[in-house]
Each structure stands twice: as structure tokens, then as C-alpha cells.
Amino acid sequence: MAQLRDLPSVHELLEDPRGRLLAAEHGRPLVLFAVQRALERERQEGMVAESGRRWADVEDQIQALRRPRLRPVINATGVILHTNLGRAPLSPEAAAAVARVATRYSNLELDLRTGKRGTRHDLVSDLLCHLTGAESAAVVNNCAAATLLMLAALAKGKEVVVSRGELVEIGGAFRMPDVMRLSGARMVEVGTTNRTRVEDYQAAITPRTAAILKVHASNFKVVGFTESPQLPALASLAHAHGLLLLEDLGSGALLDTGEAGLASEPTIQQSLEAGVDLVACSGDKLLGGPQAGLLLGKTSLVAQALRHPLARAVRVDKMTLAALAATLDLYLRQAPTPVPVWEMLRSTPADLAARARQLAERLVAAGVPAETRESTSTAGGGSLPGEQLPTTVVAIIATRLTPARLIDRLRAQDPPVIARIEADRAVLDPRTILPDEDEPLLRAVIAAVR
Predict the structure, then answer these.
(1) Is residue 400 classed as helix, strand or coil in its secondary structure?
(2) Fewer CB within a 10 Å sphere, N or C end of the chain?
């Protein structure tokens, strides 16, 4: 039996033909690290490994460090704006726009007409203003940042009146009262959880009040005995007292969701037309673009926000702006193939049923028992809470695996498939499976079941 004194030296392994091949592919420093780890493991175990096993260990160490962490996955959950899966998938046009600027210099902050320094917000502000009717617009890294910047720039040290029913919490335990506190504004709660009237806002106004804040309940519903004033009434109240009406709109829709047979989600245009002075919303929810926060409204207020020191801390990069501009261009020209989020929202039950049947038939032909069932999808991502979209799912009948175990095995495939469990079956919802993902999906399911 080999003794620890028989362990080869690090130098010997690096000079071994296999070591040289690995160094050529992965770089000598990384191979050196992996060899040292492999030898240290043998010392700790008190056992000299067979050469083949040692080299397998070295390669495992290398692959553990080199494997991609951020990977494409197939979303078969039926949740369109799945926060854990990156929310809105970009359109091909937006992805191409990112690729064009990612590896090259760009005019990010250069005015090509004058040769002088420009502002990155100008790259998209005219598009946003044209589509929404806003006087001016700016882009930051998410909606929470947009709301924080808005409050810090316009209401720090002053009172902001908000309904108790709108003190929302979004993902990751991020709460509106926390945003208000961090901005330096003093939150004044009015009304009750389910009923707030214009008179409640009016009674809370003092000489220290700077603004009324409206927060769209984008990730929950309050139903039953409820009341909430409409935006025009709040705008009239705010402006009569020389105050600002600010809004955290959340999902940032540009199109009427009612046209897709869903409940109407308020649009950016509607908020601005109703008299809101400055709107904050997301770019990666119902707008269907990259992660971004939009500020839209009066020119003087947008300029004031951009002068605040926080604006630099939350600014976006050239790739976000490229993707956002390309996404907005699809709305501008009313492209026949819209952003993927809207394709998914508008998918008809008949089309989804046909696609589910085709997937199920191909699985059965490959020896994987499967059937179709009627079910529902959701918008997700803090949009259209409670709305159920009719769909047809593919239920996989894996007799040797529990649904939970099958879900795990699907997630371990390449690419990973993220599915859900429904009625004691692992199911695949075609609504969120992209058009070019059928083949890799089928291969992954067959491999997971077998």
C-alpha cells in the first residue's frame, strides 16, 4: 500500500503530460491551485490516490471554479415575470443592441453633434417622453432606487403623506417605510388599511408637507369594503396646497393589459395625464425591458433629482440603456412581434393547448408518460396580483420518481428546467417556454426521467 511519502510533488504533477494539457486549457495558476488542493486532500485522508482518481479530482477542482454561475434556464413555471429567474426576458432586438455596445466604446456621455460631454439619460429620454407624454425622463437601476431618489431629492427633511393601505413590502423584505426613512423624508400615514379618502390626506397637510405619495399596490389586492381616491382628486388637492403629487407606479405598463383579457393595470400615461408630477416605475416588469427604474414627469423635478448626489450612485450602464432603447423602439414602431412579456400575456388558450399537446405527444413517443391538463399561469413580478391566465400544462407521470425528486432532476439538467408541482405531478407550462426552447426542454425531461 502506498505511503504518504510516495505522494508526487506539485512540480512533478505540473510537468506531467496531463498537467501540461490542463495548464494549456485552463492556465498554469489555476492548475497549480487544483493540484495543491488534491494533494492536500490525500494528506488529510491519509491515503495516496490512484493517478486517475487524482487527476479526476484536479479537474473537478478546476471545473468547480470555472463553471458559469449565471446560466440560462428554461422557465416552465408559467410565472411570466419570475423574479428569481431574472424577470422579463429581453427581445432579440434588445439583446442585439446590448451585444453591439458591450465590446466597443460608445457615445454614452458624448454629444456627437457638438463633441461636448452629454448625459446618458438623453439616450432614452426622448423615446420615453414620446411614448408616455412626460416632459422629461431619467433612468436609474431599479424602481426602488427611483423612488428613493425621488423622495431624497424632493422631500428630504419634510413630510410626505401616504395612505396606510399603500405601505407595501416588495421582495426581499424591502418596505416603503424603510425607503421613506432612508430618503430623509418624514412619513405621515393617513386613512386605514382598507379605506382612505381625500379628506384624510387633506387633514394631514401642514406647513411642513412637501408631497403626497401614491403607491400602486402592485403585488397584492385589498378587496371588499374598500375606498381609495383617484389620482385626479389627489392631484387637485396637492396642487391647491402647492404640494407635489408623486407616485411609485411599480410595474410600468405602457400598454393596456385589458386588451389581453386581464384586469387593467394603470399605465404610465394615465398617471401623468391624471396630474402626477413625478412617476417612478420599473423597466423589467410589464414594460418588458432590462432591470431599470424610470423617473418620468416635469422637467424641473427630473433635473432636481439628477442633481442629487444619490443619482450617480444609482445610475445605469451602457448595456442597460442599449437594451431599454431597443425595447422602447419596439413600442414606438408597434412591431408585429412585441416584447416577449407581451407575447406571453397575449398567448391564447387554444395556442397554449396545441403546444402542450405537441410536447406531451413527443414525450410519450420518447417513452416518457405525460398528459395535458387545464391550469392557470400568473404574471408574477409584482404585477397583476390575483390574475389567473388560462393555460394547458404538460403533467409528467414519472412512476419511479416523486414529483419533488423530478423537479430536482430537471433543475440539474443542462440547461436547467424550472418547473412546478401541481396536483401531485411535475408540470410544464408552455406559456413561459420560449419558442426556441422546445428541443432542449424535451431532451432535459427525457434525461431527468430516465
Answers:
(1) coil
(2) N
